Amino acid sequence: MSLEAKSQELKDLVSTYDTQWFLGDLSGLMKNIASGRAQDQLGKLSSPMRQMYFLAGLLVSSDDTNGIDMRYTPDKWNQIVELLNEIEREYDKLFFPKPDEEIDEEWKKIRQVAIPSFLSYFNQGPLNYEEQTINWVNDLYSQLDVTIEAETGVKTSDFIQFYNNLDDLVQRKFQGFSTRKDLFQDEWLTYTKIQMGVIDEAPEVIKKLGEERRPLYTFMADHGIINRFKPEDLVTAELPLEKVNAILPILTCSRNQSDFLYYTSTRPSNPLYEFPIIDIGNDLFQVFEVKQVIHAIDDLLERVCSKNAKAKDKLIDRKGKLLEKRIVEIFKKFFKKNFKVFEGYYVDGCEQDILFLWKDYAFIIEAKGYNLREPLRDPNKAFVRIKDDFKASIGYGYVQTKRVEQKFVDQVPLRIEDKDGNLIEEIDTTKYEENDFSIIVNINSFGQIQNDLSTLLEVGEDDVYPWVVKLDDLETFLLTMISKKKRPQDFIDYLLLREELHGKLICSDELEVSGGFLTGAISESKIEKADTIVTTPDLPAIFDEQYNKGMGFENEKLLAEKKSGKYIFW
Fold it and tell me: Which helix (H) or strand (E) holds 515?
């Protein structure tokens, strides 16, 4: 069977399910991915999160005429899983050699770059915490509210309030169905088609217990009940109904037949990425994954602010300045004292982003807000595009950091100047002998080819690779180190360890490396002994554990509840 035939067969299979129940069940399954539960359904999937989204997208883009099923049969679920994995294998075949193709070193290198980039782009969702996106959206787009309000009728703060109200509603509903009956709504049965009960012949004690636990049993049978809402459910003093009704249509889709069929399709794309809320009729709506709403808002506002050249230039300028500001704030918070910072300075007539000096250590930092382009399916064409994007972002960042780093290597005075060439300060580099580090911080991650730079970044024989890290990963790592009372020297040890990993690391997520460092799973001695270091998805668990106790993000949500230890969250 072809990729098209398998994808169509899968779409036909899921099209028989009821919209509300199926989307709710998939939402519940996604909550079990990290915990390792529901292995009977998830255990055989190769990319569970993206595959759940693919199934949901197929359902939403199918005709709902036959959508009545509200439970799986084991045979049908196994058939769905088998097709999902077969479809992934069909994409893997894109990178297999053709019958007459010569497999040489160039062929291998092209696929060494193209395969992990393709998989990271299409299989890996946003890896960050919701506060990071909320704070970024607020700080970036609030300055552009004139453009946003003219286009949408509401401001950035209204979008954020909409998201927070929706998130709070789902959390309250979850608590109401599990541990806190005082949060329960009197009309809760109007949010589900499923009616739970106990047979008349049952003993009275069983009937009484069944009635007491009916909300919980209903939730277990229909996970989507907590994701359903009416527009008025989101109304607060800060967000009146007219603003809810202005925002809701922009983020909402409904189940309708469309041409979406392919796992990696971008035209048409999976509707649930852009429209994560589904209109299920009768003035009821259902969110598929709450966190995706803030990402959809981010994407929406970027499109709005990029509609003309003038607005786009303003957005790019604002994004670059905000990225640099965030980096400096994180470093100041971590190092606390004894530091000096230079921002937007010039060296040899060339602009540089950040120089952070702490005691006798120098951190040469460049910020990159480059947006990644979708990897092409043809490996040879994909390689060219990925290489160009890499060169324009990380490669150029390295050229910039190397310009300053060379002053420290050569032990010559570093003249910090303004854009007019006026001297601001002269740095005695002899005080920082072999204590300088180049760091490139980007908004998006290139995955494997960023984490192991040996594939695409050329450095001199005696040079070391820079540390390239996504902003959100940098913040998560340093805030966790602060919470665990780690010293600046521990961070320096990490940078030294990180230099040794290039050329032997297989990893698409930097937090797997930093998590391994913090737990001791990755150490200098292990790196020395190994030819290859392959990280695993369990290594960042230390960050989730810290987040569940309180990470230290600005405006961190549910902080009091986290610290109390009395609640579980959905």
Answer: helix 510-519
